[in-house]
Amino acid sequence: MICTVQELPVVVDPVRSAGRLAAVRRSGLLDSAPEESFDRLTELTRELLGVTACMITVVDGERSWWKSHPGLPPLPGTPPETSVEDSFCRHVIALDDALVLDDSSADERTRDSPLTGQLGVRGYAGFPVRTPDGQVLGSFAALDTAPRAWSAADLRVLGTLAGVVSTEVALRESLRAAEVQRARAEVVARAGELLSAGLEQSAVLTAVGRLAVPALGDVSVVYQARRDGRVVPVSVRHRHPSRQALFAASETAAVLSTEDPSGPGRVAATGLSELVATADDGRRSADAPRPGTTGHGGEGLRDAMVALGAVSHLSVPLSVRGEPPLGVLTVVRTAGGDPYTEDDVRLVEAIAASVSPALDNARQFATQRDFAARLQEALLTPPPAPDHLNVVVRYAPAEQEAQIGGDWYDAFVQPDGSTMLVIGDVAGHDSSAAVVMGQLRGLIRAIGYDSDAGPAEVLARSDVAATGLRVDAYATVLVARIEQVPGDLTTRRLLWSNAGHPPPVLLDTAGEMTVLERRPSPMLGVAPGAARTDHELQLTDGETLLLYTDGLVERRHVSWEDSLDLLRAALAGAAQLPLDVLADRLLQRMRPEAGEDDVALIAVRPYDQTRPPPAPSGPATIPLTSVPRPGR
């Protein structure tokens, strides 16, 4: 036996249909202030027809808003509105045509309305106000406090003027649509700016958030997908700045997970866009969070969207060449806006695709930077501890946004007991420069250790060897050697040779700074075989020798003389400080605020061998975040 079930027709309330309510939101007329263009039409109608009042109403799912209502004051103590149930206009919407009543008190649809009982309306003739696609926003109506037999001429006037109101609505909608298209076109055009947002992935993602609001929505959150499964907000923007801080602390901008059943976490896991048309749709469609997840992608995210007043939210992946998403862009439209459509999904996905080159650049940069950083870390070895010298080394990397440099230091003891110091900077700012730096450092170290050669000879032989071995090296290098003077425990002999590098600095025990400026020889890689010269100076106990790379002293738009004045000021009163404290202080005071370049530093101080040696220095590598700056 087969049982058939007859499906009952679905009754759709025309007042609360999704399409009509979206049209009302799009019009922007609900809750809006009086406007002269509408008030002129209603006043003109009162004069032409001799009626008590004329009104333009806009109706949503709950109330009828009186946009213009000369001659009809609102109910005492209430806004210029009535509920949908008490509104005459709802019948205009239901009819999709004019409602004409000679006496509203005699019609069962309107006799119990406060407009009839409290405001004394009797005669009523209302015509639909439509959008260009035919949706009825509300009505244009004439009202009388006495019963009225409406003539054909009366109705022609009302119908004509209702058409004028509809035309005004259409014009406004066209202007708004044009503005939306202009804003979207601007976003697409500006997407190219992301290529100049920087080489840091977080900077590119932050720039995406700036593009998204207000062109794509009222709110945007850009998330970064981490390898540990976390989906972390890196940019939070609200079109109203006063609400941005509150929103940034909400669940919407919380750390999510790729295990979330929906929301940005799920988009990061699947690489598929997710569209939630309304907050209600989200409550109905989202599943409960899976065991062990954060829950932000389920109830937490839905509750945040409801609190935000979202009518729709859209999340699209930010990917590179089909790889797992590096991030997610979530845009939100709040009350007064239209829900996102499939057309919007395609638009936002197109913008996300235009982000791909900038993200790819950032990813490649991150790979190069991490490689170079690991290489530099491996090469930045602790300094030796000869029995007559205190040697402190420091390396401070550039800011994340800056490029990787080829700065390095080295210090080792030669077979005859002399201490060799090397400071250098390879031209270039990428992984290739870091590789060349490693090769050149190894050459100089091997040549310097294998012989008792002085600094000039070490530089000359290294330059020739690098050329012969096809090490494509262009670098400024300073090599120094410190020897004990036979029979003199208080004096050291300093020899140095400079291949285009910033000159050494000597700080005597009285705090006087001297720049050991000598004519440098060419940098390595420029003129192999060029003559190089050793320079000599006597060092006494307590004096401090400083070797450094140009990142310590060079500034944009600052002359060399002024940079030396800054260095002199940074060293004021530092002559008697422990050497490691002096080195840290120098980095703190001299590094440019933006940290635009790496800095390598060697500080050397002979000490009295009849006294205990100084305590070991601190770490050689100083992470940027551990180097405080003035005013922080």
From TrEMBL:
Gene3D superfamilies the record matches: 3.30.450.40, PPM-type phosphatase domain (3.60.40.10)
Q: Which SMART domains match?
A: GAF, PP2C_SIG
- Which GO terms label this protein's molecular function in UniProt? phosphatase activity
Q: Which domain of life is it from?
A: Bacteria
Q: Pfam families from the entry?
A: GAF, GAF_2, SpoIIE
Q: Where is this region: Disordered?
A: 279-300, 607-632
Transferase is among the record's keywords = no
UniProt xrefs under InterPro entries: Bact_Sigma-Reg, GAF, GAF-like_dom_sf, PPM-type-like_dom_sf, PPM-type_phosphatase-like_dom
Domain (PPM-type phosphatase): give its ranges. 389-606
**SUPFAM superfamilies per UniProt:** GAF domain-like (SSF55781), PP2C-like (SSF81606)
Asked if the keyword Nucleotide-binding belongs to this entry, the reply reads no
What sequence ranges are listed for the domain GAF? 33-179, 196-369
Q: What keywords were assigned to this record?
A: Hydrolase
Q: Which PANTHER family match?
A: STAGE II SPORULATION PROTEIN E, STAGE II SPORULATION PROTEIN E-RELATED
The protein here is known as SpoIIE family protein phosphatase
